Amino acid sequence: MKDEELPERISDLESLTLRSGNPGAEKWLHRPVKCLDHGFVYLAEYMGSDSSIVQAARVSYGQGTKKINEDKGLIRYLMRHAHTTPFEMCELQFHCKMPIFVARQWIRHRTANVNEYSGRYSEMSNEFYLPDASVLRKQSQSNRQGRSDEELTPKQNEKVLKILNTLYKNQYSGYKKLLDIGLTRELARMGLSVANYTQWYWKIDLHNLMHFLRLRLDGHAQYEIRVFGEAMAKIVKDSFPLAYEAFEDYRLNAKSFSGPELELLKQLRGKLPVDKNTARNMAMARFQNKRETQEFLDKLDALGWLTFNWLE
Amino acid sequence: MKDEELPERISDLESLTLRSGNPGAEKWLHRPVKCLDHGFVYLAEYMGSDSSIVQAARVSYGQGTKKINEDKGLIRYLMRHAHTTPFEMCELQFHCKMPIFVARQWIRHRTANVNEYSGRYSEMSNEFYLPDASVLRKQSQSNRQGRSDEELTPKQNEKVLKILNTLYKNQYSGYKKLLDIGLTRELARMGLSVANYTQWYWKIDLHNLMHFLRLRLDGHAQYEIRVFGEAMAKIVKDSFPLAYEAFEDYRLNAKSFSGPELELLKQLRGKLPVDKNTARNMAMARFQNKRETQEFLDKLDALGWLTFNWLE
Amino acid sequence: MKDEELPERISDLESLTLRSGNPGAEKWLHRPVKCLDHGFVYLAEYMGSDSSIVQAARVSYGQGTKKINEDKGLIRYLMRHAHTTPFEMCELQFHCKMPIFVARQWIRHRTANVNEYSGRYSEMSNEFYLPDASVLRKQSQSNRQGRSDEELTPKQNEKVLKILNTLYKNQYSGYKKLLDIGLTRELARMGLSVANYTQWYWKIDLHNLMHFLRLRLDGHAQYEIRVFGEAMAKIVKDSFPLAYEAFEDYRLNAKSFSGPELELLKQLRGKLPVDKNTARNMAMARFQNKRETQEFLDKLDALGWLTFNWLE
Amino acid sequence: MKDEELPERISDLESLTLRSGNPGAEKWLHRPVKCLDHGFVYLAEYMGSDSSIVQAARVSYGQGTKKINEDKGLIRYLMRHAHTTPFEMCELQFHCKMPIFVARQWIRHRTANVNEYSGRYSEMSNEFYLPDASVLRKQSQSNRQGRSDEELTPKQNEKVLKILNTLYKNQYSGYKKLLDIGLTRELARMGLSVANYTQWYWKIDLHNLMHFLRLRLDGHAQYEIRVFGEAMAKIVKDSFPLAYEAFEDYRLNAKSFSGPELELLKQLRGKLPVDKNTARNMAMARFQNKRETQEFLDKLDALGWLTFNWLE
Fold first, then answer.
1. How many domains does chain C have?
2. Å from B241 to nearest chain C CA?
3. Which residues contact A89 (CB under 8 A, 6 or more apart)?
4. Which end of chain B lies in a sparser environment, N or C, as judged by fewer CB atoms within 10 Å?
5. Which chain B residues touch A146 with a CB distance below 8 Å?
C-alpha cells in the first residue's frame, strides 16, 4: 500500500520518546481501516518491533552468541520452532467497531484485553450490518458451519435484504419506544439483533494476534470476521515485516501432513504424480474416512501431484 | 434446600471410581435448576472437594506440619490470605442455557473453558427471554449502568412486554423465511436479537468460579445473570461447604475500608456512633468526592454507627 | 525521588512517535535500579498512561457521558469497584536480574510474558546472592513461612556468610571443571545453587503488575523479592501517578473486615475503644480460632481502638 | 503395558459416583511411575474421557446432527482442524516429584494450576538428582541448547559424578549447619542446588497437556524433563485413547511444510526421489539459509525421497 492511499489519521500529535520506534506501526497509528458497512479497525497504541523480538530472544543466549544469528534468520528460526515467547513481547491495541455476532466470535480468543461499549451505560446506535448483495450465499451442505459458493438469485438477494432491513428498522424503533416508556437500557436493548454494531478497545500481544489471524484469515472463518482479520493483517505486516513474513511462510502458507499421510507419501515414492483414483483408494484404505481422504487429495492436488483420468 | 425439592436428574447411572468423592456435588449432578423463562444450569461434571483443597495446600508444608491445622481452619486461612492456588485444584463443569446478552456478560470471564451452541452449524431455537412483569424497572439515574427500584405502571409493563413479544415473533418468522430462501445460517441469524437463547458447556476451577460469583452475585450485576450466579452458588455451597462458608465470610459479606477511610475511623475513636452530618462533612473534607463520601456513610450505616438528626 | 538521584540511563536516543506519551515512564526508561548485591530492574518498554486507562474505560460509556467524570475520580472509581480491564490496557516491560530462588517465586505469577537467560544455551555467571549481615534472621516460630525479627549474634552472622560463600565458591569451581571435562552445559549447571543469578525480560499489564505488587510488597513476602517489588513500585508510581495513588488507597493501605468481624463491630457500637481482654473474649467466642482472633485484635489496635489494662 | 506391570497404587478406596467414568484413567489413579533416581509422577485426580470431548463438541451442532459423526471421526476432525476447546473439558491432576531445574522448565507452561512444596515452610530433603552415567554427554556444537550424542570416557564419567556428588553432600551438610545455627529456612536453602528435588500437585486440561507433551517429548527438550513427559504420555494414552491417537497422528508424528518448501515440492513434481546435492542446491537458492535447507533435506530423507551419490 502506498502512503497516499492511507486513510486519514485521527490524531497527528508527535512527541519524543526513548522507547524503541517502529516506523511501520507509526504509519498506521490512528488511521482507521473501514470494515463492512459501518465498522472499522485502527491501531491505537503499540509496543515493540521486530528488533524487540530479537532482543528478548537473545537474553536466553547471553553475550557470547549475540553476533551469530542475524535478526531475520533468528526470527524465522523462532517461528519455525514454536519459540513463541519473544513474539509475546510486542503489543498492539486496536479500536474496533463491528456487529455483535462478529464480536461474539472474536471474544472467544481469551488471551487479550477488552473494553467494550456497554448497552447498560449507553444507548445503542442505529447501525446494523446489512451485507452487500455480492456476499450473500446459500448454506453449504458439505461444510455444515458455513456458506457455499452458490449465489442466490437477484430476486432472492433483494428479498433477503428487505427482510433484514425491515427487522432492523422495527427493532430500533421498538428500542426507542421502550426507552421512551422509561424502561432501563439493560432491558430495552434486548430486542436489538446481533447485527447491531458495538465497539471496543482490544489489546493483544503479537504471538496471540498471529494465532488469531491464523484462525480468522482461514477460509472456514465467517467472511464478516475475516474482513477485520485482513485489516489487522495489513497493519501487522507493515509493523513487523520480518515476523509477518515468517508467519506467512511457516503458518499461513504451510501445510501439515499427518503421520498416516506421511506413510502414504513414502509409499508413493517414485510414483508421483499419481492418478487421483489410485490415490483415493490408497487413502481410503488407510484412513477409512471420506473427509480425511479428501483432505489428503486436496493437498496432493495443490502440489500439482494428482493426475486425472479424462473419463472421470 | 431439602433433597425432596431437588429437580429431576438427567442421568442416574452410578459407577465405581477411585477418585475422591464429593457427596454434596453428587447430589446436584445432572439436576437442572431452572433460570429465567427458558434457561437452566446443571452440574455436568466435577473434580475435587474441600479435602482436595486441603491436600493441595499441604504439599507446601511437607510432612512435619500435617496435623497442626484442621481442614476448616486451613481453608479459612487460605481464603483470608488470598492463597488461591489450592482452590484452583477443584473443577466444575456446567451445562447452561441463557439469553445471548447474558452469555455476552458471562464470557468476559476469561479463565474458563467454553463450548457454545453455534448458529453457523445449527438452527437457532424459537426461544427468547421475555421478562416477568415483576422485574421490569426504570433506568437508574444515580447508577448509570443499571435499573432503579422504580417500577413502571401496569399499563407500561403491558406495553413493554407487547413490544418485545412482537419483535421476537417477527424476528423468528423473518429468520425462518431467510432459511427457506436458502440463505446460509450464519447470515440468516443476523436479525435475531440478544434475547434469543443459546447454550454452552462451561468449565471453571473453584477459585475462578468464586471470583465470578463475587462479581455476578453483586447488586450491580444485571438481574438476569445474577439468577444464574445464584443457581451455581447453591450448587457450590453444597459441594464445597467449607470453602463456600469462607468465601461468604471473607468475600461476599466482607467490607473493605480504604486507607483514607481507616484514617477517618481513627479520628472517630470514642465518637461512634456519629451524627450523619458530622460524618458527611468529615468525609467530604477528606475525599473531595460525593460518591466516595456516600459509600463511606453507607458502610457506617450498615454497622449501625450513624445517628440521624430528626430535623434532617 | 529527585531527578538528580536517578541512576544512569542505558540509552539516550530519542525519537518521534504518535503514541501517547508518559513523561513519568520516560524518566525511568533504561535506568537500572540496583537490587540486592548483583541484581537490578529497569523499565525497558512501556505502553500507555493514566490517560489510556480513562480512554479505555470511556468506550463503555459512549459519547454522552464523557464530561461527567474527571480522570482522577474515574480512575479511583474503577479501582474501588474492581473494574480491572481498563488497567490492563497499559503494559510495562522490565529487564531484571535476580537470584534463581527469587525468580522461582516471581514466575508463579502466570499472567506475564517472560524470556529468561538459559543455562542450556549459555554459561551461568559467577554471581551468587550473599545477603548483607543486616538482613539475616532466625526462623519465625509463629509464621512458619518466614523469618522472625530476631537477629543472630555477630559471630553467627559471620559463620553463616562463610558457609554460604564457601558453598558458592566450590559450586562455581565445580561447574567450571565439569565444563572443562566437556559435559553439556544443561547438566554441568546442576550443582549451582538457587542463589545463582539469572535474568529475564518480563512484561506484564498494569492490572496484573499491581496484583503482583500487592502480594510481593506484603510483609509476608520474602525480603529478597520485596526489594524488586519496591523498585518496580517506584517506577509505577512515577509512571501512573493516579492509578498508583488509587492502588495505595484501596489496596495496599486498605483493610478488609469479614462478615463475622463486621458483626462484632456492630456489637461494639458505643463501646469503642474497647479493652483488649474484652475484645479477645468476644472474638474467640465468635471465631473459635486463635489466629483469626489475633488478626481482628490487630486491626482494632491499628485503629487505636484497643485499650490495655496495665495489669496485663 | 500389561496390568500386572503397573506399579503399586497409593490408595484403593472405591466409591460410587454419577460422574462419567474412565476405565483407562482409573487404572492409573494413585499408581506412581518412577522418574529419574528419586522422582515420580502419578495421576491423583481426573475429569472426563473421550466421550466428554465428543459431548462438549456436540453442543455446537445441536440435536439435528448428533448421529452424523461417530466419536472417533469427530475427535480426529477436531484435532486436525485445531478445534481445541472440547479437549479443554477434560482435566488431569498429577502429583510429581522432580529436580528443581526440571521444575523450572515445567513451570513455563502457564495454563496449569500448581501447588509446590515450599522451602520457606518446610525443610528441603537430602535428595539430589545424580544422573546415570549412561545419559552423560558432551555439549552439542550444532545445537547450542543441548547435549550431543557424543559420550564422555568412562573415566570422565566417573569424575563428573564424583564432582556432583561431592557438591551435593557439602550443600546439604551446609544447609543443616545453617539450620542448626537458627537461620531462617528461606535463607538457609540458598546454597542448595537446582538438582535438589521438589514436588508439586499440577493440574492441567487435556488440550494444554498435549501441547506440553508435544514440546517436552520432542528431541530438543532436555532428557530429564522428557522422562516425565513420557510417563504422563503413557497415562494419557490409556485414559484418552481416541484423543491420544489423533494427537499422535496429527501432532507428534506430523510434519509441516512451509510455504517456500511447498513451492520446492511443486518444482520437484515428477523428479522424486531426488539426488541430495540437487535438492540442497535448490533449497539453498530458495532459502539462503543453511539450517532451513538442512531441515528440508531431513524431511525429504525421512520420506525416503533423497538419493545419495556414492561419491559424496
1. 3
2. 16
3. A48, A52, A53, A55, A56, A205, A206, C45, C93, C113, C115, C201, C203
4. C
5. 120, 184, 186
Q: Is A256 on the interface with D (CB under 8 A)?
A: yes
Q: How far is B41 from chain C (nearest CA, A)?
A: 26
Chain C residue nearest residue B215, CA to CA: C82
Give yes or no: residues B72 and B150 share one domain. Answer: no
pLDDT at C13 over 90: no
- In this structure, the answer to whether residues C139 and C74 fall within a common structural domain is no
Domain span including residue A263? 259-307
Does residue D236 fall inside a structural domain?
Answer: yes
Whether the ω angle into residue C273 lies within 30 degrees of 0, i.e. cis, is: yes
Which distant-in-sequence residues (6+ apart) come within 8 Å of C212 by Cβ? C109, C112, C204, C229
Q: Are C296 and C265 in contact (CB under 8 A)?
A: no
Query: Does B202 reside within a domain?
Result: yes
**Contacts of residue B107 in chain A, CB cutoff 8 Å?**
104, 107-108
Q: Could you give the CA distance from residue B107 to residue B101 in angstroms, rounded to a whole number?
A: 10
Chains with 3+ CB–CB pairs under 8 A to D are: A, B, C
Residue B126 DSSP one-character state: S
Tell me whether residue A35 is in a domain.
yes
Domain limit, last residue, from D191, D219, D235 = D191
Cβ pair A264, A283 in contact under 8 A? yes
At residue C286, the 3 state secondary structure works out as helix
- Residue that finishes a domain, picked among A162, A191, A220: A191
Residues B112 and B206 in one domain: yes
Q: Where are the alpha helices (DSSP H) in A182-289?
A: 185-188, 206-216, 223-239, 241-247, 259-267, 276-287
Report chain A residues whose CB lies below 8 A from the CB of B163. Answer: 174, 177-178, 191
**Partner B, chain A 73-102, Cβ-Cβ below 8 Å:** 99-101
Q: What is the pLDDT of residues D263-276, one digit of tens each?
A: 999 999 999 999 99
Q: Is B146 on the interface with C (CB under 8 A)?
A: no
Beta-carbon contacts of A243 under 8 Å, excluding residues fewer than 6 positions away, are A50, A53, A75, A79, A87, A90, A206, A210, A236
Report the amino acid identity of residue B205. Answer: D
User: Would the pLDDT of D67 be above 60?
Assistant: no
Q: Do B33 and B138 have their domain in common?
A: no
Question: What's the burial of C16, exposed, middle or buried (CB within 10 Å: 0-12/13-18/19+)?
Answer: exposed
Sign of torsion, CA B76 B77 B80 B81? Answer: negative
Rounded to a whole number, what is the distance in Å from the CA of A186 to chain C's nearest CA? 13
Interface test with A, best of D272, D274, D284 (most A CBs within 10 A): D272
Q: How confident is the model at residue B64 (pLDDT cuts 50, 70, 90)?
A: very low
**Are B248 and B270 within one domain?**
no
* Cα(C302)–Cα(B265) distance, integer angstroms: 10
* Shared domain check, D114 and D219: yes
B107 touching C (Cβ < 8 Å): no
CB contact under 8 A, C136 and D100: no
Same domain membership, residue B224 and residue B181: no
For residue D295, give the H/E element and its range: helix D290-302
- D93 neighbors D44 (Cβ within 8 angstroms): yes
SS3 state at A193: strand
Could you report the per-residue pLDDT of A20-67, keeping only the tens digit for each?
Answer: 899 999 999 999 999 999 999 999 999 999 999 999 999 987 654 444
As a residue count, chain C comes to 312
Determine, yes or no, domain membership for B126.
no
End-to-end Cα, chain B, rounded Å: 44
Q: Which residues pair with B7 in a beta bridge?
A: none
Same domain flag for C71 and C203:
yes
A77: chain D residues, CB-CB within 8 Å? 291
Query: CATH number for the domain including A63?
Result: 3.30.1360.170
